[in-house]
Every structure is written in C-alpha cells, then in structure tokens.
Amino acid sequence: MAAVGLGQAARTTPAGALPANMVPHPREELFTVLVVDDHPLLREAIAARLLQMGAGTVHEAASMAEARARALATGPCDLAILDLGLPDGTGIDLVTELRTQGWPRIVVLASSDDPYAVRAAFQAGAQAYLLKSASPMVVTDGVRRVLDGGVYADPSVAPVLAAGTRVPGTDNTPRELSGREVEVLQLVADGRSNKEIGEALNLSALTVKSHLSRIGRKLGTGRPGSDGRPGHARRGDQMTG
C-alpha cells in the first residue's frame, strides 16, 4: 500500500486479491475513488474499506490543494469521499468544484450533524452525508447506495432532511419532500435496501427507485438524463437489494 503524496502511487487492488463474493459486480470494471481527509489513519481506514468493497484504485489527498491537484491529474473518478473540515478550506466548496468538473458521485464525511452543513452539502451536489462516528456498516451501505445512483443520509442526520425540508428546485423555487419521500428517506437512513423499503411501504421496486430519483433532484443531487450509474463503472440492480 502506497502512502499519500502527489508523487506517489495510489492504493490499488492487486489482480485476483479479492474473492469473488467481495466484489459487487465481478464481471464489471472496478470503480475509482478519491478520498480527501486530513487525518491519515481515518483516510487509510476508508481507503482499505473501499478496496475491500471492490474499488480498483483509491486516490488520496489531505487538503483542498492536494484534492484539486489529484482531480486535475486523474479527471473525474466514479466516486469522491470528502471531509468537510479541511485545513485550507471548506469541503462544501470542494463538492461544488468537483460537481462542476463532472464528478458524478460525492459522499460527504463530517464530524458535525449541524443542520446547515447537512443541507448545504446536499444542495452543493453531494449524494450522501455520513458522520465520522458512523459504523463501518453504515459507511459501506451509504457508499453502495451512492454507487447505485441513490442518496443516503446518516441515521442521525436524516431527520434534519426529512422534517419539513425545503430545498430549491431546478427553477429555484422552494420544494418540500412529500410525506412518502420522507418515509423512503427515513428507511434509507435505517439501512433498508430498495426491496425492503418496497415491502415496508407496499411499493414496487420501480416505484422506490422513482422516489429516490425525485429525492435526489429535490436535494440538488439528481442529474436529469443520468442513467443512475457512476461514470464508466456501469451497474445494474441495487447492490443492497
């Protein structure tokens, strides 16, 4: 495993290193990730987790400056995981920059459950908001949902979005999540798969995906015309379904 540094190699999954049952879609191309966090141990733990999930390459950066240099060197990866509290700037600005540059999937990792930060992250274009105190399983579930084109909020911050959330729509007019969308978002935060959400709410899998797409658009994370797949790593059914 290589250490962080722009002149050093990224972490990669050696050929044949993962058993087939650990790779989400063994017959498909592995996904690429950029992890930005100024705490080396946490960054390394996240990188190791992503490699176990089937990431082919994990690039790392410890600051806004390093992240910008990485982004310029690699171009958009399938996924970015960003710390909000960086030493040389705010992660919210980095979310906006990467989305503008065409990065398709962004997960925010934060220490705070501050309502302003949660809403600002989603409105800037993040698809998930995870807390650093979250369990490895919560992190894994959130990342998988985002890779599959969904949205995710840590269970402790989901109520911030679900309770009367008003967000600007594509025409800049405020839009609220509907009662059903709130229910779907809360079940997502509980770690339920699309199938389990459908069973709980008596909805078809297609309807659940439709609700998730609308939630994504209302939170500012949806991409009209997108096929719901990350970059070139094309995926099929919900991983956790």
From TrEMBL:
InterPro entries: CheY-like_superfamily, NreC/VraR/RcsB-like_REC, Sig_transdc_resp-reg_C-effctor, Sig_transdc_resp-reg_receiver, Tscrpt_reg_LuxR_C, WalR-like. Keywords: DNA-binding, Phosphoprotein. Residues 170-240 form the HTH luxR-type domain. Residues 32-147 form the Response regulatory domain. The keyword Cytoplasm does not apply. The modification 4-aspartylphosphate is found at residue 83. GO terms for biological process: phosphorelay signal transduction system; regulation of DNA-templated transcription. This is Two-component system response regulator. It comes from Saccharopolyspora erythraea (strain ATCC 11635 / DSM 40517 / JCM 4748 / NBRC 13426 / NCIMB 8594 / NRRL 2338).
